[in-house]
TrEMBL record:
<feature type="transmembrane region" description="Helical">
    <location>
        <begin position="159"/>
        <end position="181"/>
    </location>
</feature>
<dbReference type="InterPro" id="IPR011527">
    <property type="entry name" value="ABC1_TM_dom"/>
</dbReference>
<keyword id="KW-0812">Transmembrane</keyword>
<dbReference type="InterPro" id="IPR027417">
    <property type="entry name" value="P-loop_NTPase"/>
</dbReference>
<keyword id="KW-0472">Membrane</keyword>
<feature type="transmembrane region" description="Helical">
    <location>
        <begin position="56"/>
        <end position="75"/>
    </location>
</feature>
<feature type="transmembrane region" description="Helical">
    <location>
        <begin position="267"/>
        <end position="288"/>
    </location>
</feature>
<dbReference type="Pfam" id="PF00664">
    <property type="entry name" value="ABC_membrane"/>
</dbReference>
<feature type="transmembrane region" description="Helical">
    <location>
        <begin position="239"/>
        <end position="261"/>
    </location>
</feature>
<feature type="domain" description="ABC transmembrane type-1">
    <location>
        <begin position="27"/>
        <end position="285"/>
    </location>
</feature>
<dbReference type="InterPro" id="IPR039421">
    <property type="entry name" value="Type_1_exporter"/>
</dbReference>
<feature type="transmembrane region" description="Helical">
    <location>
        <begin position="27"/>
        <end position="50"/>
    </location>
</feature>
<keyword id="KW-1133">Transmembrane helix</keyword>
<dbReference type="InterPro" id="IPR036640">
    <property type="entry name" value="ABC1_TM_sf"/>
</dbReference>
<feature type="transmembrane region" description="Helical">
    <location>
        <begin position="133"/>
        <end position="153"/>
    </location>
</feature>
<protein>
    <submittedName>
        <fullName>ABC-type multidrug/protein/lipid transport system, ATPase</fullName>
    </submittedName>
</protein>
Length: 537
């Protein structure tokens, strides 16, 4: 499966995510640390007052306890809210990188895997921050302050808390490895299930036509059974972690009572000590989940971190243009074109040099031709960091321009494309948002997209890969968008054949007189090629 390949590939790469301590999150982290110290101080005050209550009942002391308990509640309430803000802020940054990587990748992951990564994997990271890391950040100061309070009552009481911490640490460390492996296995099976469901739904027409609905449902069920088994296996470790994290503090309470008896402490000191231990037990009880969330986080990080690192490299290369030309200058006609392939593709096709007005047919293996045209259209030729690789227009490399400039130089309409979500007007001018809507609509109608036939004309909303447009209407929209403002380089494939017959003949005439360079693949009747780009033998 694809997700197994992508999950296995990053092993040799550093598994680092963007730093959590960053602008926009520093104040949140400082607030969480402050709340942890405040909760510790409140716990000491509450414990001392409860000790006073055990000696003599006083309305003023009882009111003070109730007030401090309310403050303790507010501190924990604020802690949870700040933790959620911190987690959501961080996950939003990761989600942005994942989506950008999926869109920039020459061979993007399947829809199911992309959804799984942006939900399951990011949820594991968010859970670690909100319910794992925050209890550590806020809980450690509370334990330290509470332990200090116990020490002042009697050193044996602090030693009881210390022994409890050591025992819990041994238990959690012993279960951490198995929890990580079970989390990795579950994540892999979830990815497989998401990919299978997405692929099955995408092929629903062929499946129904072949009478295979029950067969495919059973295959999905078989894959889901692996998820069920892996979930139960992980639950065994989670149960041991959480059960131990709750049971050991009870043992700590018993040790504290024994220490208090050994030291012959008064009842007020014992009540204070038990209150402090009870507050610490709540924090220790969360640590079982902390370890579970940490191992889930590590499993998610192992997949996400290399993708984000790759995305950052691509973004950095786009942000540091080497070309001294700008898009407006390169749009000037006539413009020669040179396509220099990176080493990974140079063995399949030679370098191409073309002059304005040429119509070049790409010939070779169908899959190689499709990959080549897609790489030219998306600018992924330069992802190999080859300083010469890319599309050169009038000797200025288009890949060295920002995406907002590069999109103006290369128009593409390929079978692998579907219109993005939004209005028809937005889709038509996607390459040139500043283009005249009237001219864009006129060009679309020339290509066969009749606005009068749409529910809301150019304001018709597109969704789910181009609905409500049919196949021919989608092709008309994509071809019109590619032709808008006559880019120096135009890339087409058999998508053109989906145009309505009358529109196809008109577009073919336009292409035969196209002033820029046209590169196409597939059988497109009516288009007169002037040269060919042959794959290497």
């Amino acid at each position: 499966m694809l997700d197994q390949k992508t999950a296995a590939a990053p092993v040799a790469q550093p598994e680092r995510l963007p730093p959590l301590v960053a602008p926009g999150r520093r104040m949140l982290l400082a607030g969480l640390l402050s709340l942890g110290v405040l909760a510790g101080l409140l716990s000491i005050a509450i414990g001392w007052l409860i000790g006073q209550l055990s000696a003599s009942l006083s309305a003023g002391t009882l009111a003070a306890v109730l007030g401090l308990v309310g403050c303790f509640f507010l501190a924990k309430y604020a802690e949870r809210v700040l933790a959620e803000k911190l987690g959501q802020h961080y996950v939003a940054q990761l989600r942005r990188g994942l989506v950008a990587h999926a869109l920039r990748s020459a061979r993007g992951p399947s829809m199911g895997i992309t959804i799984a990564r942006s939900t399951n994997d990011l949820s594991s990271i968010r859970n670690w921050i909100v319910q794992g890391m925050v209890p550590l950040v806020a809980g450690l100061p509370l334990l330290i302050v509470s332990g200090t309070g116990l020490w002042f009552l009697h050193p044996l009481l602090a030693l009881s808390l210390g022994a409890t911490l050591v025992l819990e640490g041994i238990l959690l460390a012993g279960l951490a490895g198995g929890t990580f492996l079970s989390a990795r296995a579950l994540r892999r099976h979830r990815g497989n299930l998401a990919a299978r469901i997405a692929d099955t739904v995408a092929a629903r027409t062929a499946i129904a036509a072949g009478g295979g609905i029950e067969r495919e449902v059973q295959r999905v069920q078989d894959t889901s059974q692996k998820v069920i088994d892996a979930s139960v296996h992980r639950a065994r470790f989670a149960a041991a972690l959480r059960g131990g994290a709750l049971a050991i503090p009870l043992l700590g309470t018993a040790l504290l009572v024994a220490a208090a008896a050994q030291a012959q402490l008064p009842a007020a000191a014992v009540a204070t000590a038990l209150t402090l231990m009870g507050i610490c037990a709540g924090t220790l009880g969360e640590w079982g989940r902390v370890v579970e969330y940490r191992q889930n986080y590590k499993a998610g990080r192992r997949i996400i971190a290399p993708l984000l690192a790759e995305q950052e490299r691509w973004q950095a290369s786009e942000a540091s243009p080497a070309s001294t030309r700008d898009a407006k200058e390169l749009m000037l006609q006539p413009s020669s074109v040179r396509i220099q392939l990176p080493e990974s593709m140079a063995g399949k096709f030679p370098t191409l040099r073309a002059q304005p007005g040429q119509r070049i047919a790409v010939r070779g293996n169908q899959g190689d031709c499709a990959a080549l045209l897609a790489a030219i259209a998306t600018g992924s030729l330069a992802h190999d960091a080859d300083p010469q690789a890319g599309v050169w227009i009038a000797e200025g490399r288009s890949e060295d321009l920002p995406a907002t400039g590069r999109r103006k130089l290369i128009g593409a309409a390929l079978e692998s494309m579907v219109p993005e979500r939004g209005s028809v007007a937005r889709a038509l001018r996607y390459r040139h948002p500043g283009a005249s809507l009237r001219k864009a609509v006129a060009l679309a109608e020339t290509c066969g997209l009749q606005m009068a036939h749409l529910p809301d004309a150019e304001e018709t909303r597109l969704r789910r890969g181009g609905e409500p447009l049919n196949s021919a209407q989608q092709a008309s929209l994509l071809v019109a968008r590619a032709l808008l403002r006559e880019p120096p380089l135009l890339v087409l494939d058999s998508l053109l054949a989906r145009l309505p017959d009358a529109a196809y003949a008109t577009v073919a005439e336009l292409l035969n007189d196209y002033p820029g360079v046209l590169i196409f693949s597939g059988e497109l009747p009516g288009i007169s090629e002037t040269a060919s780009w042959e794959a290497r033998a």
